Each structure stands twice: as structure tokens, then as C-alpha cells.
Fold these 3 entries.
Entry 1:
Amino acid sequence: MAPEIDKTVEEWRAQLQPDQFNVLREKGTEAPWTGTLLDVHDPGLFRCAGCGAELFRSDDKFDSGSGWPSFTRALTEGVVEEHEDRSLFSRRTEVVCARCGGHLGHVFPDGPRPTGMRYCINSLALDFEAQPGAATADPDDTGA
């Protein structure tokens, strides 16, 4: 299916930071453990950094130990598309934003319940939108 948003390479390059362009438009990958959203656990939505489409909920995020933000499922059916990826001498399933076609990462069948899936997504491909009015956890709060 063709993406809803169709921009030229020059338009994408002008809109995105160079590292985001590399991930979203050239199918690059950020180094593990370097992503700014890896440790974000506040309530909210993760959107495509290319077009703003709502892709994942923080409720579905988990620590996979892989070094990239991981989710058990996409927000709703059809917001991401999956394509066979035979690069790097392996067979994987690439995940792209259905709205703009931006490369997000890959999905693997080794995640936790309830889905058993691990959507391993580059932080550079996402923007986080905190849920309005939701309390955020204070890492210094010991509850005492």
C-alpha cells in the first residue's frame, strides 16, 4: 500500500534531523542503548517522528534488554506495516509507519504476553507525547 504522505527526498531532508533522516528514510539503525526514549515509561503516546501518526502506547512498552524501545503491539491495526527484510544476511520483519512509509525498526516473535511480539523501534523514529494530566514518576521518590 502506498503511504498517505508522499514527499521528495529533499523535503524529508529539510524536515528531519540528519540522524532521523538516516533511520526513517534510509533504514538506518541507532546504536543500542543510545536512544532518548529507551527509558521513557511515563503515560503517553509514541508518534512517528516523520509525520506525527500515533503508533504505540506507553502501556505496551517493556524493557526487552535489547537496547531499543520495545512494544508488545502497535496502537491499532493498520498504523504500521510489516515487510520482509533480507538485509544483513538474515531474514527479519521490518516495521514502517503506514502513513509516511518511514522505517521504524523490526518486529520479532520473542516478546512477552499477551502478544508474544517485540516491536524493536528506534528512538530516532519516534516522538513521545505525555498523556495530559497523568502523574509522572519521580525517580527520587522512595514512597516513604
Entry 2:
Amino acid sequence: MKRLWLLGLIFGLTACTVTQTTESVSLPNIASVSLPDLGPAPELTNDTWLNVDAPLRLADLRGKVVIIDMWTFG
């Protein structure tokens, strides 16, 4: 029984290995991509904030990495 379990484990791990492909993916040259400059971000003006003591301001977040997850109740 232990041999069968070990064989299944080895087979499962072998099936999960990553194989290297010879295809190359071409990404656009970052220097050639131009996005419009829309100016500074508008201030966050929400009345309701979850999981914070006080409303957030962009000035307080400057220089930090921020992830904003926006959703609605409903």
C-alpha cells in the first residue's frame, strides 16, 4: 500500500512540473507606448470608509504602494 501511495505521489508531482516552451512572447516596447497625461488624480471624496479610522486623503498616501478595491453594496 505504501508503494502505491509513493508511486501516486511521484506521478502527481511529475505531472505538475513546469515544462519550458520554445515560443517567445513579444511585449511592446515600453518607450513606444504613449498614454495621455490626465493631470493629477482627483481627491478621494467618499463619505463612507470601511476599516479605517478617518477618511483617506491622497496626500497621506503619497509615496506608498496602495491597492484600492472599489465595490458597491447591493
Entry 3:
Amino acid sequence: MPVFFQHRINEHTRLGIWKIEETEEFFRGNVPLHRDVTHPHKRLQHLAGRFLLQFLFPDFPYEMIQIADTRKPFLADERYHFSISHCGDYAAAIVSRTQRVGIDIEKPVEKIGRIRDKFLNEGEKQRFVSASTDLKDLTLLWSAKESVFKWYGNGAVEFRDHILLGRKHSDTETIEVDFSKTGEQLSVHYREFEHLVLAFVIS
């Protein structure tokens, strides 16, 4: 069973990362395809993410997932709050019975360095970016903002202006965030693996 990482956050909230080693036929035998995904690997990621939801909570009703206009998947009865992310051969999901959640998983790639001015404001660049900043550090900052974006789920978010990164606490693996669009103070949790970065929000 290719569970790469699993974390029981509390009694009501669980998180997991799945390393995709199965065929599409395996997932199709367990999970319905909710939308027309034409690219074979993206279709495999899509199915693996939904499979992971029920792995985390066996009674998760994935057949009842709906897609909002913002492309956020949700359950109309809010029996569970959930978020899914994909990257390469990995799918990540977080599920909670009681709290809104957002998750993002990323592989550090050169593109993140090229677009840093699009998602970091001047204050954040002064605080976090220096000549010694590596690609994984930049990827973590992007992933933190992406997890907040997915937690919010209503679209129309400017990463530079609405998701403001504060202090990073390496001892607790958290980053303080001011979500100025709603005035909420959030804490993004993160994990760094050899070749992956994971960020998630619970609120």
C-alpha cells in the first residue's frame, strides 16, 4: 500500500499523501470519475486523490462530490470538509468533519523561482528571500499561499495582496498568515520531504 505520509491531526481531521503506483483500472474499480479528464496522467492523479479521501475516512461519500464554479470540490451537506492536491506521482488530501481545510503539495521546480515576483510582495521578499534562498524555500512559500487559497475556496484572491506571510516557526513547522480578504489570522502547517513540500491549513 503506497501511503507515503499519513497524519492524524485530531479526532476529526486526517491527512495523507499517496504515491501513485497503481494503474487507472485499479482506481476506476473503486472511485468514479467525476469529470472528463483527457490527459492520462492527470486522470490518474484525479482518481488517486478521490481514492485517498475514502482511505482517510472509509465512509467518505465521494460519489456525492460536487464542483463549485471556482472548481473547488465540495459536499453539499458539508458532512466532511476536504481538499486535494496533486504533484507528479503523488496525491495529497486532507479531510475534516468539523473544520475548513486546504492542502497543497509541490515539487520544487525552476518555474517557482521565475514567478516569485507574482506571488510575493516586497515585504515578503525582504523577509524571506536572500542570495542563499534555495528553490525548496521558495516552493514552500508558494505552497503556503496555495493552501490558503484552497482553504478559502471562493476564488478572486491575489496572492501578493490578500495572502500575507508573517513569521515562520521552524520549531513547530508553521507560518503565520494574514488573509486580508476576510481579516482572518491563519496558521499554515508544513512538512518538507527530500523532494516534496506539503502545506495545509485547518480553521
